Amino acid sequence: MEVEKRVSVKEFMRIFGLTYYTAYNIVYA
Hints:
- This protein is mainly α.
- It has one domain (1-28).
- Helix content is 90%, strand content 0%.
- The protein has 1 helix and no strands.
- The model has no long low-confidence stretch (mean pLDDT 88).
């Protein structure tokens, strides 16, 4: 359970970071 939770958080942060980075580029392009 804990391992899956850690992986989920890591994946979530990765996706969130990518989305934030993309949105930043679109807004400030």
